[in-house]
Amino acid sequence: MKELEHKDYGLVRVAAVTPRQYLADVERNTAEIIRLAEEAARKEASIVVFPELCITGYSCADLFGQQRLLEAAEKAVKDIAGAGLPSGMLVAVGAPVRCAGRLFNCAVLIKGGKILGIVPKSYLPNHAEFYEVRWFESGASVYKEIVYAGQTTRLCARQLFSVGKAVVGVEICQDLWVPVPPCTYAAIAGANIIINLSASNEALLKNDYRKQLVASTASRLFAGYVYCSCGYGESTTDLVWGGSSVIYESNSLLAENERFLRTSSAIYADVDVERMDALRAKNPNFKDVLSCTADAYVTVPGGDAFPTDFSRGLFRKVEAHPFVPQGAELADRCKEILNIQVLGLCSRLEHIGCRKAVVGISGGLDSTLALLVSVLAFDKLGLDRKGIIGITMPGFGTTGRTKGNAGILMEKLGISSREISIVPSVTRHLEDIGHALDNHDATYENAQARERTQILMDVAGQEGGIVIGTGDLSELALGWCTYNGDHMAMYGVNASVPKTLVRALVKFAASEHFDGAQDVLADIVDTPISPELLPAAADGTILQVTEDLVGPYELHDFFLYNIMRWGYTPEKVLFLAGIAFEGVYDEAVIAKWLKVFCKRFFSQQFKRSCMPDGPKVGSVSLSPRGDWRMPSDAYSSIWLK
After folding, report:
1. Whole-angstrom Cα distance, residue 582 to residue 86?
2. N or C: which end of the chain has fewer CB within 10 A?
3. Parallel, antiparallel, or unpaired: how do β-strands 151-156 and 143-148 relate?
4. Which ranges of 471-531 would DSSP assign to H, the alpha helix?
5. Is the pLDDT of residue 2 over 50?
6. CB environment 180-197: b (16+ within 10 A), e (fewer)
């Protein structure tokens, strides 16, 4: 993807580096820090975080009162600043800093040979195994211009540091563990990446809690969080230090260090600051908690980030199927979504006092999922399944496979079933409007879809029931539905379920709830997706395959998620899709269908403006009463350009 190279795409490469510690041997520590920083530069990292007090070692205890150690630490900072590290790389190291007769546990921020600022620790642990108040003072209220390591700089806890598109807030270990940590105010003031220089010892179950704490903080703040802790070489007189470092982006774990190593180690991740900013912009309450403390933060300009070439590979995973998680999480996700769909339908039926539901059964995935949800809802309400009226409506393109599966499924589930052919009525209608039967255009197709909807609506009126919509989120995004045809229903249970997830939900429901129907459900899952509105092939198989016409649904769902959830540009989506689908689709194919997605998404908004009620199940919804309000006459030109 040559034309996309050397763009940052809103990504910032960060590193958490745990050096092999040499307690109080400042020269050896400094040499190791510089070596590891140079290694991070070769990996093109923009933000490199070292542990708390890494220049001296955290566990020096009363040695922190020695002038020789403090002088050596200051010289070490000067040596690191003068080491010729790349100008685009921000390096954060931990050092004891004395100022006006007070000693502070500090993070020193260095970039391009300049000390951008020194951030002292605000909250000093002085309980259990920690005795920091014996040596250090809180720097929460300190604000001083000082000369340190030969440079004039600022000593202040309330500082942010800009690096390209990243704004970095700084915490030191215990700062994170208090009820209202400094990172809360830093994030409100604009920090989208928090770094934490830490010295966190190991104890049974502590690592799990530590990760939960970082994850919940990053998630609450919509921020990247780089937590870097010290490791081998710290004193083991009473404690063990495992080098427990993690990098989170909101609640997603991007990287985790292997603990208990005897050597230096580092982890890297590419944090998407555009994603964090998008989450904040969507949540107006994020800025509602502005306070004088947040206003007091000063942002130190740090210049450009490292010109990382992300096209050579990412230090983050790009999910090809973002709506469909892998492994054990998939079953939990499916169970949750089915519960939402079922409860939504239960509530609607109970509220209107309705004991009957009408579902059009095609033998395809969407109508199958809608039927399964309906059955589960009736079971939950204690209603007779015979109150569900499944109707098959064979038309010009219906194949024996789908029609047969529809019949078997209804029989296995024990619902009421009807078969009403639409061929005579649609033929008469096309003749009435003077449309040739061999003209297989949109009118030919739409007439069938609208006739089916009319049958469903009229039967619902006859029976005192409601029509359960079958259309899914992907079809709504593409407008792949006939206006006032399959576009319409009285309650759309699949309205926010994307196509790639429909298949997973049917598989899950089959295994968890419908043992007797597993064979037919398995064949439905394997059936090509088709509206079956055009005549079948000569051998009776499906000729009209949806994905041949509008493109692969796995691509469209990828586009949908990344554009709607994060507001990404098409250029960024193209770049990420190239990584996610490497070896599956080439760039030209992805670009072709991305263009189709953008065109159809804009041109088909009018269908979404009047879509039926339906439950939101995930982070992306296109309901005009929920997540998405868009004018139907907006232009797509700048997305396509």
Report:
1. 32
2. C
3. antiparallel
4. 473-478, 499-512, 518-526
5. no
6. ebbbbbbbbbebbbbbbb
In angstroms, the CA 397 to CA 399 distance is 6
CA quadruple 271, 274, 277, 279: dihedral, nearest 10 = -90
80, 81, 289, 519 from 151: Cα distances, Å: 13, 10, 36, 75
Q: What is the pLDDT of residues 419-462, one digit of tens each?
A: 999 999 999 999 999 999 999 999 999 999 999 999 999 999 99
pLDDT of residue 493: 98
| Fold (topology level) of 2-312 | Nitrilase/N-carbamoyl-D-aminoacid amidohydrolase (3.60.110)
User: Which sequence positions are flagged as catalytic?
Assistant: 52, 121, 173
The whole-number average pLDDT for the span 383-405 is 95
The rounded distance, in Å, linking the Cα atoms of 236 and 58 is 12
Lowest-confidence pick of 127-141, 524-538, 588-602: 524-538
Whether residue 22 has pLDDT greater than 70? yes
Question: What DSSP character marks residue 46?
Answer: S
pTM of whole model > 0.90? yes
Q: Which residues contact 30 (CB under 8 A, 6 or more apart)?
A: 55, 76, 79, 80
* Sign of torsion over alpha carbons 278, 279, 282, 283: negative
State residue 432's pLDDT score: 97
Task: Name the one residue in this structure whose structure tokens are 């339908």.
Answer: 345
Question: Is the pLDDT score of 411 beyond 60?
Answer: yes
Would you tell me which CATH number, out of the four given (3.40.50.620, 3.30.830.10, 3.40.50.300, 1.10.10.1100), belongs to the domain 328-640?
3.40.50.620
Strand partners, 419: 392
Write the secondary structure of 371-392 as one string of H (helix), E (strand) and C (coil).
HHHHHHHHHHHCCCHHHEEEEE
